């Protein structure tokens, strides 16, 4: 119980620190969002009327006063579940915008994360079992090279080949402009077609981290006495690989997978921006560009809380699976 209590207290301390940083960091950006809005309406080369700026600040509810009072008000709003009105999409609350975007990101990032985790760990375990073979060399060297390629470059290449040149898949967006936007087989197929290129661009490099991590961990577990004993007993190779070696080697990846799921709220900013995919990543990119503090802070807050909760859950799961962790032993 002491292990779980310590992890929970560490979670609370980290959460308070994250909330505080989430309040401070957006305000370090230069400029005033109200002035930006007035400048866009009046024109870049025209003088700004201070009265218009003041009116915009009152309309948007941009906080005034000293920074400490703003921080207290910010914590009070969080406790009441009030996250404010978006500056960019006034008068919509930020929760409405996030609610519309989050399902797109969950559908894209969650599915690709699960596929990448399963495929990556299976390939990593197979490479470790067949270490020093041609397959292991391909996994270790070939995929290491592919892993150096950035998401943005891969996404642009896929977009150029399959959307512009071959015209097999849509250029961008989450659905066609001519779609009925009503639940049907045609609408579901249309959404799936728009998600293919973003998903593939993620899956090309996404599983590589799981592959390399699983391979390295399993190489170590294959040298343990319990694995050698299982081999000496004459157990079938697939049983030794899965139930003795891979079962223990996958434990570090469980924490990483939980944190990747917790980060779903943040989306994949570059990929969603390139494909104009209506998810959390694109919404966050727009919030940063427009200095939309309420929207930016809420997305960051949900992402941070999701990652912390996922990390806490992973700590609990690992603690239950491995008694050495609870007892503080290696």
Account of the protein in words:
- This protein is an all-alpha fold.
- α5 packs parallel to α14 (293-321).
- It is built from 15 helices and no strands.
- It is 73% helix and 0% strand.
- The protein is globular and about 85 Å long.
- The chain has a domain at 102-291: MetI-like fold (Orthogonal Bundle).
- The chain starts with a helix and ends with a helix.
- The mean pLDDT is 77.
What is the secondary structure topology, with strand pairs?
Blueprint: H1 2-24, H2 33-42, H3 50-60, H4 67-79, H5 94-129, H6 134-146, H7 151-165, H8 185-221, H9 225-232, H10 237-249, H11 251-262, H12 269-274, H13 280-289, H14 293-321, H15 323-326
Helix pairs in contact: 1-14, 2-3, 5-6, 5-8, 5-14, 6-8, 7-8, 8-10, 9-10, 11-14, 13-14
Descriptive labels:
mainly alpha, MetI-like, MetI-like fold, 15 helices, globular, 330 residues
In short:
The protein is mainly alpha-helical and about 325 residues long. Helix content is about 75%, strand content about 0%.
* Overall mean pLDDT: 77
How many distinct helices?
Answer: 15
The helix fraction, in percent, is over 70%
Question: What's the gyration radius in Å?
Answer: 24 Å
Overall SS class: mainly alpha
Task: Look at the structure and name the CATH superfamily of the domain at 102-291.
Answer: MetI-like
- How many β-strand runs? 0
CATH topology of the domain at 102-291: MetI-like fold
């Amino acid at each position: 119980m002491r292990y779980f209590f310590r992890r929970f207290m560490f979670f609370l301390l980290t959460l308070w620190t994250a909330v505080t940083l989430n309040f401070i960091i957006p305000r370090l950006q230069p400029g005033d969002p109200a002035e930006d809005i007035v400048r866009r309406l009046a024109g870049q080369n025209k003088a700004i009327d201070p009265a218009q700026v003041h009116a915009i600040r009152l309309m948007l509810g941009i906080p005034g006063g000293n920074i400490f009072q703003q921080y207290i008000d910010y914590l009070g709003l969080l406790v009441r579940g009030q996250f404010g009105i978006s500056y960019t999409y006034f008068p919509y609350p930020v929760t409405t915008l996030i609610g519309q975007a989050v399902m797109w990101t969950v559908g894209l990032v969650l599915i690709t994360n699960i596929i990448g985790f399963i495929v990556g760990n299976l390939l990593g375990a197979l490479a470790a079992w067949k270490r020093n073979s041609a397959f292991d060399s391909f996994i270790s060297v070939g995929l290491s090279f592919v892993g150096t390629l950035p998401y943005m470059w891969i996404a642009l290449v896929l977009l150029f080949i399959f959307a512009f040149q071959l015209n097999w898949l849509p250029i961008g967006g989450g659905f066609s402009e001519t779609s009925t936007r009503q639940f049907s087989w045609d609408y579901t197929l249309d959404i799936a077609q728009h998600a293919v290129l973003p998903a593939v661009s993620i899956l090309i490099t996404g599983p590589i981290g799981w592959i390399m991590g699983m391979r390295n961990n399993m190489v170590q577990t294959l040298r343990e006495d319990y694995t050698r004993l299982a081999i000496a007993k004459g157990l079938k190779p697939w049983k030794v690989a899965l139930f003795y070696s891979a079962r223990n080697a996958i434990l570090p990846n469980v924490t990483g997978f939980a944190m990747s799921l917790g980060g779903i709220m943040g989306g994949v900013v570059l990929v969603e921006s390139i494909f104009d995919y209506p998810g959390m990543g694109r919404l966050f990119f727009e919030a940063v560009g427009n200095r939309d503090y309420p929207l930016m802070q809420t997305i960051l807050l949900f992402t941070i809380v999701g990652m912390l909760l996922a990390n806490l859950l992973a700590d609990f799961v690992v603690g239950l699976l491995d008694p050495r962790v609870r007892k503080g032993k290696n």
